[in-house]
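User: Here's a protein and a ligand (protoporphyrin IX containing FE). What would the complex look like?
Assistant: Let me lay out the input and then the predicted complex.
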Amino acid sequence: MARVKFLCDADRCIECNACVTACKNENDVPWGINRRRVVTINDGLPGERSVSMACMHCTDAPCAAVCPVNCFYTTVDAVVLHSKDLCIGCGYCFYACPFGAPQYPRVGNFGSRGKMDKCTYCAGGPEADLTQAEYVKYGANRLAEGKLPICAEMCSTKALLAGDGAIIAEIYKERVTRRGYGSGAWGWKTAYKDGVAL
Amino acid sequence: MNTAIQFIRAGAFALLLIFVAAAQPAVAQQAPNPTAQSVKEEQLLKALQPGSVISGRITIPDGSAATLIQPEGQDWRQFHQGTLPIIGAISIIGIITLLALFYATRGRIKIDAGFSGRTITRFGGFDRFVHWLTAGTFIVLALSGLNLSFGKFLILPIFGDAAFATLTGYGKVVHNYLSFPFMVGIALMFVIWVKDNIPNKLDLDWIKAGGGLFVKGVHPPAKRFNAGQKGVFWIVAFGGVVISVSGWFLLFPFTGGQIVGDQQFWVNVHAVLAMIFISAMLAHAYIGSVGMEGAFDAMGSGEVDENWAKEHHSLWVEEQKKLAGASPKGAVPAE
Ligand code: HEM
Ligand code: SF4
Ligand code: SF4
């Protein structure tokens, strides 16, 4: 099985937010929650770059390590998923996540956190694949349909790449070699403990 | 003439061409080079100060989403999964070991003169209510809190995923709600007892005598509260305030700072303090119950044996006797 990853080629991203919108639509993401977002670094300065970021599906994921109820699991494709049935909304995974991926609907006592929600790599959750129950809690399960995450598919410039980590790293390297520059595979060092050697 | 001028012109033009041609590469080098100018992740990561984040601008209203990468998350994970369990184990298992050793060597501290059969009122109803309000909520807060920190190692294997998650979910709700009566208890306790807990010279002598805890028959004089009890009072006062403030910031996220790092800081404060607080209270509970004959009555019925009072709070007993002599109503509760 492949080790799937996300890679955002910041030198291509034009901050159109198509990934964000596509994700919201495909997964019926609740109001107030963004599973994916686009952050612009050095906005308005020469050399500004935009990066589309969501859960990176880390190797040895910090969120899973700190969860007091052990509700995370990693699929054979190395997608990090969690169970909303087990989650108690404590917020610890948000503290540990280097990418600010976990989000909380504002429900429950003290207007504080509900069950955590985050990017599933369009791979649903622990419920049986492609069931209504799975969709309601976690959104689409495109992986089960043999498709890649919608954000990368919808990317207008093909800046956002999803798929087998080795293959997308190769595509990125080729691009960098051809055009002669690249600002790095954002987040890879932190998430996977290895960058893409350029 | 004309031809001469034409010749010079042609020569000058040729020279110009040569110059332009020579200058061409220099011009090309000044063209924008995206590699030189663009922000690179590697540079940003290298330049990152400990505790800071890589952030930018975001178009959605949630400002905290502008944080792109906070490598600190990994450090917090390290702390919460590595350092905190060590701190917890050392302080809690440590204190239990010490108390067991103390019990094994000193045994239960007896009333040397035995029970007199006469009692004296030590704590009235309100004092005891405040004590048990704080203590009761503390016990539940401590258990539900410890379950969050260590439950998955100790309890989850017994109950399994689903039952443990349900239990921990209720625990969280209970922890959130009981924090309020606990805070009320801490505040009331401070108000009703602070005047008798100001340290003075008497406390130094008490400490020098080891509180009489380690030697049989030694009973340094004390007023209403001895130095040991004053210590417990101030631990509860300071610990109570800090655990409440840090807990408040966890209950209402981002009221104690704008970035994730602030939340991490407050969890760490809350969790480490909880471990120390719990061990201190274990020692307090020991000496107030199994550890010392006659001590529990003070917070149980509120009536303590006169001999117990004479041995542990000699000056307070004298005060009370004087008050009782002055007022025909009898002994006034220790308030
Ligand atoms: C007085 C007010 C208090 C408040 C507002 C408060 C609030 C909180 C909150 C919000 C959490 C995070 C988990 C959750 O959402 O339930 C937490 C965790 C915790 N609390 Fe409290 N708490 C208070 C008092 C205490 C006391 C008195 C103790 C124990 C002596 C305690 C021990 C713990 C522990 C051990 C954790 C888990 C920490 C970790 O593993 O990181 N808390 N508390
Ligand atoms: S990006 Fe965050 S939520 Fe996703 S696997 Fe890594 S630590 Fe967990
Ligand atoms: S919020 Fe939910 S998923 Fe995250 S650490 Fe807490 S219980 Fe686990």
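Summary: Chain B touches chain A through 58 residues (CB under 8 Å).
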